[in-house]
Amino acid sequence: MNANAAPLLVGTNLKMNQTAAETGRFITELADVLLRSFGLYFVIPPFTSLAEAVRARDESGLPVWIGAQNMHWEASGAFTGEISAAMLTALGVDLVLLGHAERRWLFHETDEDLQRKVQAALAAGLRVLLCVGETAGERANAVGLETVGRQLKIALNGVATDRAPLLQVAYEPVWSIGAGGTPAKPEDIAPVAAAIRGLLASQFGDGGGAIPILYGGSVDPTNAGLFLRVPEISGLFVGRAAWTPPGFLAIVDAARDASGRQT
Ligand code: PGA
Q1: What is the pLDDT of residues 70-100, one digit of tens each?
Q2: Is the CB of residue 13 below 6 angstroms from any atom belonging to ligand 1?
Q3: Is 11 touching ligand 1 by the criterion CB < 6 Å?
Q4: pLDDT, tens digit (0-9, with 9 covering 90-100), for 33-53
Q5: Is 232 touching ligand 1 by the criterion CB < 6 Å?
Q6: Ligand 1 pocket: which of 97, 237, 251 to mutate (most atoms <8 Å of CB)?
Q7: For 123-149, what is the HEC assignment?
Q8: What pairing do the DSSP bridges indicate for beta strands 64-68 and 40-44?
């Protein structure tokens, strides 16, 4: 599969930014332009913005998935500070982000935690955006592919083939994320994207060939097109550069130009 064969998927993780009112305005402002555009979109705000994001999405008619940044694998119980899959689906949330590098390194999430979360999210009918990516140290020691393979295989172990349509995978090298990050080069991404595709195809068969693989890490309007020309990459997962409506829309424009699609 190449970038032009799969539906283009562009979205942003707002991380710990924006109040509920700010997220509502963000989605409302995106709506006018994106309704006339192409592709699939998603916005992943903080938990406190989810209800307002869903409301703004429904009011505007914007075809955008609203996602949560994390969840617990248990359905309910004594887990102070945590949120369950059922709480997310009851709000009208479409997707949950699992395994973002900041969750792994700042909050010590393990591959085994993520396996439980993936299972619980899929059982609840949530879409899953699973992040994988190696650290700078792993890259320097030439074990990046092993890290990504381990993360993917453990998180998805036991997932049935009929769940494949709910899955999205984002390759986000840790060294490329955030203010100190360096955007990856297409030649860095291509072998990893091919390996991810191979693992997905071996687990899910034909369904694995259709799972979107996104690139994330210091994406901006000047480099978005480069990433979408990498075989197997059919979407972009964006942080800082997409936190304003003009920023988000500039990336959508760059993606559209790179994919040769019409609005
Ligand atoms: P960035 O964040 O685009 O600001 O580098 C990406 C991410 O953390 O997913």
Answers
A1: 999 999 999 999 999 999 999 999 999 999 9
A2: yes
A3: no
A4: 887 776 799 999 999 999 999
A5: no
A6: 237
A7: HCCCEEEEEECCCHHHHHCCCHHHHHH
A8: parallel
